[in-house]
Amino acid sequence: MRETLVLNASFEPLSTVALRRAVVLVMQDKAVVEHAHSGLRVRAANIDLPVPLVIRLCRYVRVPFRQRAPWSRRGVLVRDQHRCAYCGRRATTVDHVVPRSHGGGDTWLNTVAACAPDNHRKADRTPAQAGMRLLVRPFEPTPADALLLALRLRDGGPRDGARGDGFGGAEALPEWLTVPGRPLPGPAPAPAA
Predict the structure, then answer these.
(1) CA 87: distance to chain centroid?
(2) How many Å apart are CA 95 and CA 98, to the nearest integer?
(3) What pTM did the predictor assign?
(4) By percentage, how much of the chain surpasses pLDDT 90?
(5) Has residue 43 got a pLDDT over 90?
C-alpha cells in the first residue's frame, strides 16, 4: 500500500511510495523526512527512524510538466470524497451530468460521484430534466491536487473511509500540504442540455 508522499527538492508533490521505499530513500540519504507520524517509529539493530508521512528528495528531479490530471472513474470518486453529488450519501458510481448519449464526455467537469439509486433515477437525462439538483459543482483538479486528494489530505483531515491507523490522513500535516477547500456558494447551476 502506498502511504508516503514524496516531494521534489522544490517541495512540489511528485508521487507516493510504500513505507519501505521511503525508509530506504531516507537511509541512503537521498531524501529527508519532512513530516513524520507522531508516535510510530521504524526500529532495527542500528536504526531508529520516525515513520515518514512526507519525505523530500535531496536532489531536484526534473519532471515533464503535466497541465492536467488524467480523468478516471476512481479519480472522480476520490475527488468527490465518495459522496453522492445529488443526496450526499456514499457514492459507488460515476454519473455524467450531461449524458454521453447527449454528447457529454468523460471529463472532470461533466462527471460526478453518485449513489446507485440516484444514478438510476437520473438515468439518461440531465439533472434539470430529472428534477435533481447538484449539491456540489464538479471541478478539474490540478495534478498536484489529484495526488493530494488521492492521499486523503484534503481539507486538513482524514475523510470518511480513511484508515484508522493514521496513514493517509492529515491529522498533523502542515497546512501548506493540504489542498485548499473550494467553497461553493449555493447549489450548483444545472448545465444546459
Answers:
(1) 21
(2) 9
(3) 0.58
(4) 45
(5) no
